[in-house]
Amino acid sequence: MSRAGSGLFALLVAAGGLGAAAPARADVPPVAAPQVTAPAPLVGAATGSLLVDVRFAAPVAAPVVALLEGAVPGDGPRLPLAADGLDWTGAVPVSAAQAGTWTLADVTVGGELVPHGAALATAVVQGSDAPAVTFAPVTRVPVPRGSTVVIAGRAVLGDSGRPAARLRLAVWSSALAGGPPSEPVPFVRTDAQGRFRWTQLMDGRGDAVVSVARVLGEQVVQRTQLRVAWLRTSVTAVPSATRARAGARVVVRGRVQGAPGAAVLLQRRVGARWVPLAGAASRAGAYAVPFRLPAGRTTLRVVQPRTAEWRSSVSRSVVVTGVRNRT
Predict the structure, then answer these.
(1) 174 — phi, psi (to 5°)?
(2) Where does the signal sequence lie (predicted)?
(3) Residue 158 is part of a domain; what is its CATH number?
(4) What is the pLDDT of residues 111-165, one digit of tens each?
(5) Which of 8, 118, 251, 258 can bridge 240 by disulfide, Cβ–Cβ 3.0-4.6 Å?
(6) For residue 107, is it within any domain?
(7) What residues make up the domain containing 297?
């Protein structure tokens, strides 16, 4: 397995952002003959170029950008075009995984939308047997923030099942809801069997997931994510009484450090198992869970269950005793 050098990694412009250009103005020349041309059918890991050609009715001096909508949600790059007389042209790399109808949705000149009616032009990209990438942690997870995690995976062609050898994959870590970074990212190539292995540093500022994806130009293609880190918290538990009459109301209070608003669950030990008694939501990091004290010794603990952001946390166990009334 080999590693390719780092390369610039631009944020993918989502389809919902295509309308960010300024409204069309009457002095922007109209488009006379827009065209989008698909490459020959793509098979496996092969890539091709989707060609865009825009001709204006009059010369244009300002920068021209084509706004595309891809066949897969999120495939919507902004494509700067190069001038060739009245024609402005450009190319977008595409893969078999992006097969479907591509649309030239808008064109801007100097940031101004070119007036037009429906979609300017469309083309159908044909593709089959696209690679599928899977990976899993070698390191035991979850890992603390700021530590490293080793992942191993494989890329195979989706229809035939053959290895996707020498496939170039980008690897990065990010927050749970974070997108790809704009700074350079490292790449790894699969070996002859389509396998790869990578050691990733989980940034202590908030990285929680590792992402592996193909990157074509400024497009993130076939992104796969794996959660490997959670935030840590701690829970305390103090009963209002450690000895009381059986059947009395006892309140277990405590704090959830670092996770305000987190839910907690009071549990009772029965043999080797922990059985839920009651739950509550913390407020400003504090909680209170009431319960009826049974007769005899009862071992309790409070659990803050794992969430999308936080690792689960367990308090120290406490023992309370319910005393029967003497008759």
Answers:
(1) -160, 175
(2) 1-26
(3) 2.60.40.10
(4) 888 877 666 899 999 999 999 999 999 998 878 777 899 999 999 998 899 999 9
(5) 251
(6) yes
(7) 234-323
Distance, CA of 247 to CA of 305 (rounded, Å): 28
- Whether 103 and 145 map to the same domain: the answer is no
Q: Name the residue among 289, 285, 262 with its Cα closest to residue 277.
A: 289
Q: What's the pTM value of the predicted model, to 2 decimals? A: 0.65
In whole angstroms, give the CA distance from residue 14 to residue 105.
13
Q: Taking a C-beta distance cutoff of 8 angstroms, is the pair 289, 252 a contact? A: yes
Candidates 300, 195, 204; CA nearest to 251 is 300
On whether both 108 and 176 belong to a single domain, the answer is no
CA distance 316 to 127: 57
Same domain? For 251 and 313 the reply is yes
Q: 261 with 290, same domain?
A: yes
Q: Per-residue pLDDT tens for 171-222?
A: 998 877 666 777 778 999 999 999 999 999 887 666 788 999 998 877 888 8
Residue that finishes a domain, picked among 227, 257, 287: 227
Note every long-range contact of 181-187, with CB atoms under 8 Å and residues 24 or more positions apart, other chains counting: 181/9, 182/9, 182/10, 182/11, 183/9, 184/6, 184/7, 184/8, 184/9, 185/6, 185/7, 185/9, 186/3, 186/6, 187/3, 187/4, 187/5, 187/6, 187/7, 187/215
- Is 67:107 a contact under the CB 8 Å cutoff? yes
Query: Both 106 and 76 in a single domain?
Result: yes
Residues 113 and 28 in one domain: yes
Residue 21: pLDDT band (50, 70, 90) is very low
Domain count, the chain: 3
CA distance 247 to 291: 9
